[in-house]
Amino acid sequence: MHMVEYRRNQKLLQEVPLSIPDNIPADRNIAKTLLQQALDRGQTVVETHQAVDILKAYGLNTIDTWFVSDVDEAVNVANSAGYPVALKVQSPDLLYKSDVHGVVLNLTSDDDVSHAAHSIIDRVHQINPKAKIDGLIIQKMALTAGAQEIRVSVINDPVFVLCDLYWRRWLRMGSYSRCSRSIATIEYGLGALYGDSSTENQ
Fold it and tell me: Which of 105, 121, 128, 161 is 20 to 30 Å from 75 by CA-CA measure?
């Protein structure tokens, strides 16, 4: 088995990634404006429904996502969007929604959405009474057949700050464990996110 893994890894090492095309749509001004608006509101985290337009500015498609303010609106939006849907609590005080069981998947009817929404809100109040609930997030369920769930994050490593301002940014990517929120398999790499890394404020 180890020889099989070794051969597979050697083959992967020899693969050459495709060149990044020059025609990828990117509107940095929109992304910067949205991020600045979040900062002006005192946010330190971009919420799920806010990230959609930022990703779209860089040509990244996302699952259809709606923010709703109450249970009735959640039912109406889910019905209009079409089932099945996922329902998530939206709170600036809950970085990990799973901590309060704030995510319910594969809802297939108005009654399912209504029951799930009330249950989520009740659980949040019980587990974290001080948490502010802004509303709820509705998302279309993704087709998961043959899919692999991954998590990608950007790390600003203070070790590299004194060496090179632009090379302190790391990309971290790996398979995600819902149970422990840990990344089970991790790959690290320095990413040239801004094309020419010698140009400031791109």
Answer: 128
Domain range spanning residue 31? 22-62
What distance in Å separates the CA atoms of residue 46 and residue 171, rounded to the nearest whole number? 18
Residue 117, Cβ density class (10 Å: 0-12 exposed, 13-18 middle, ≥19 buried): buried
pLDDT, block means (10 residues), the chain with 202 residues? 75 68 81 94 90 90 93 97 96 88 95 97 94 95 76 67 52 58 52 42 37
In a domain, 11, yes or no: no
* Claim to verify: residue 94 and residue 156 sit in the same structural domain: no
